[in-house]
Amino acid sequence: MKQVCEVLGVARSNVAAKRARPADWRDGRTARQTDDAGLVDEIRHVIADLPSYGYRRVWGRLRCERERRCEAPINAKRVYRVMRVHGLLLERRPTPPRPQRRHDGKVAVAKSNQRWCSDGFEFRCDNGEPLRVTFALDCCDREAMSWVATTGGHSGDVVRDVMLAAVEQRFGNVPKAPAEIEWLTDNGSGYIAGKTREFATDIGLKPLTTPVCSPQSNGMAESFVKTMKRDYVAFMPKQDAATAASLSAFLWARRLKRRYPRACVNRSPNRIANWFMADFQSKAARTDLASTLRNASQSSLMAASSLGK
Predict the structure, then answer these.
(1) What does pTM read for this prediction?
(2) Which of 16, 39, 70, 154 is the most buried (most CB within 10 A)?
(3) Is 148 strand, coil or helix?
């Protein structure tokens, strides 16, 4: 048998089991009960009073009734098969149509102050008191420009405070940003409020929200939430909300100096911002030098032409 099974590529255990079967053996899986009329009546009797019951709940009711009558229990798979054949299953919830707007771009941008994102997170202190944090993040250098910690909710007032603090942190005490900046958020009530959107426009921000049930997401801000909870909130002392809020400022500053996001070429947000500023200043210096040399060459050419005449 071993050589034959090896040639055919089959298992010996299966062949041995088939050889040991009696002559009157019958596959029990094919011996289904074809008369389901009685079971259909029982099922209809159950769902007549409870039409919201699915096959599992119907099977539970039938099982209890049969136990009360000291009858053999019924299999849940048979109940499902009978209800499916006779159209007694619950209708599936229709799949909502997916939006046509696709996310083919990137959340990150090449330069600072082009797109900001915002989100919030919550954690519980040791005494059960909640602390909710709302923040604003630059999508280039990943700097957390502003944040607010409160025991209240993520309201529109908190979001507007974060917006204004971010503008002041980047541009100083100015009425609005020098150029329009995209403000990427989710569809939270504090972000989509009319007052919040009007305030964002007044200070130079362009509100952008991600569509519901779409591939787009506020992924950079959500990744920041995960990082804060994993690396800082999980280990910092948080006896109460006041202690946690006071430590949050220190941890926030520590992250700006020591956190090295992979997408930022392993530089901290502060170093990225300084690097961009130095690069900008060097480009400006090179531009000024090129302009000076160009003007000098033009002056020398004009002087030479005048001497030739």
Answers:
(1) 0.53
(2) 154
(3) strand
Q: Which amino acid is at 27?
A: D
Assess if residue 224 is contained within a domain.
Answer: yes
Regarding beta strands 115-124 and 181-185, do their DSSP bridges make them parallel or antiparallel, or are they unpaired?
Answer: parallel
Per the domain annotation, does 197 fall within a domain?
yes
**Can you list the residues of the chain whose pLDDT is less than 70?**
30-34, 96-105, 211-217, 247-309
Cα(273)–Cα(8) distance, integer angstroms: 69
What pLDDT digit, counting tens, does each position of 42-97 carry? Answer: 999 999 988 888 999 999 999 999 999 999 888 999 999 999 999 999 888 787 66
Q: Is 127 helix (H, G, I), strand (E, B) or coil?
A: coil
CATH of the domain at 144: 3.30.420.10
For residues 256 and 244, what is the distance between their CA atoms, to the nearest angstrom? 18
Q: Return phi, psi of residue 74, to 5°.
A: -115, 150
CB contact set of 47 (below 8 Å; sequence gap of 6+): 53, 58, 88
Tell me what pLDDT residue 159 has. 94
Residues near 183 by beta carbon (within 8 Å), at least 6 away in sequence: 116, 117, 118, 163, 200, 205, 206, 207, 208
Exposed, middle or buried by CB within 10 Å (0-12, 13-18, 19+), for 166?
buried
